[in-house]
Amino acid sequence: MRQATKPVSAGAVLGWLALSALAPGAAHLRAGWRKTGLALLAGYAALLLALLAVGLSTDNLLGSLTENSWLTGITLGSAVLGVAWFAVIVHSFVVLRPGGLTQGGQIVTGALAGLLAVVVVLPFGVVTQYVWTWQQTVNSIFDQPTTEPEETVARSPERPEDPWAGRDRVNILLLGGDADDNRIGVRTDSMNLASVDVKTGSTVLISLPRNLEDVRFRPGTPMAQRFPTGFRLPPDPGGGRSDLLNSVWEYSDAHPEIFGGKQHQGPKVLMDTIGYTLGLKVDWYALVNMWGFARLIDAIGGIKLTIEQDVVFGKYNEGLVKAGTRKLKGADAMWYARSRTYSDDYTRMRRQRCVLGALLDQADPATVLTRFNRIALATKELIRTDIPRDMLKDLVPLALRVKNAKVTSVQFVPPLINTGYPDWAKIRSITAKAVRDSAGTGPAIAASADPSTTPSAGPSATPSATPSATPSAMASQKKPAKPGENPAKGLTEGCGAL
Prior knowledge:
This protein has 2 domains: 10-142, no CATH class; 169-490, 3-Layer(aba) Sandwich (Aminopeptidase). Helix content is 46%, strand content 11%. It contains 17 helices and 11 strands. A 7-stranded mixed β-sheet has the order 9-4-1-2-3-10-11, sandwiched between helices.
């Protein structure tokens, strides 16, 4: 039996309703609905304890939020809780017997009670909408890989809890492509390999120039059989070249006959080629449409950059990104990163590194949350990748570690290398040292290096099959670097100096 209570004032009705929004059941206890009130409070306490238990018992909570089962559960749970909270507020208003108030009091409390009922539903609605959007974004990007890699990172049977199969690093190839509706194929004008320490997040970003010539392919592969002395084609009718590193993807896609009729071999071939060049095993790639990247920058509200000198762009040099410190919109940021007018590829590579560094620094959690829908939409439109869907739960926390870890970079540009006649052994040696310095683990890089072959040096030498993990090779890796051969630097070092 419910205990009789005296009618409450309008102020008291609103106060108890507000308390019920935070502690469901409070208004019912005030109105004498003891069993209902206690049941609501007990259920609320149980819900909080359950959420706490899930948080404490889940080692990788952020990573779990990429799994469809979790995302579906959160979406349904938020929708159910939103409806339940709405019903609690409405019923709390009823049991407080607002009929005893004056007509004006009933109108005011009724209106405010309805507003409160809507307000308490909003957070659940936002969570439901955000999670649904996140799920659709993740599924659209990762559920349909564009390549079928022969080998990828897999969990060790002996250590199932280790997602990296005992490896110390993972290597992800980050590509910027210029594909659009008016161009056939994909040219990868920005090529950066991120080598990430899986424990600390320490990262080396290794940049390769688009105009690297005589590119070597791993011996025994179809491309190496077609180009045994390096990637070389006759000049284009206009005098340009279509046999540079940035054309490997496009050429491979355009010539399926090289691969026994297999289509869309470009990503796989480029990953293997860059891995062979650097002496690293490339695990996955992510291709970003450069102008889609501009939309992502707009989605986070622009990025703040210090422009060292005026950057001219446009077919007729009609565009200008002025020198100075300012927040750039996506289009200007991309022109700053891509323009070669009165400049060269190597200066452009440095500017691209500066844009990546600014984006990494300025895409803070608050910005991502407040602009989540725009960021998700832009991300769906700009990324193409072969990262397996089931690896996301481990890559998400790793990405957060990268944001707070040391990130260094190496750019293989003149005078460090000659892009027309690359010293392949030097490229591999510098890469190995940069990875070792990032890890702080001495000369061994077995976790990331591919020890099967070593690219040959010189413009016309045939690629050799000398194992790089021999004692002599390891000894050579231990030698101190010559002056100028330790080019690793902070990601944003050299950026913003007016």
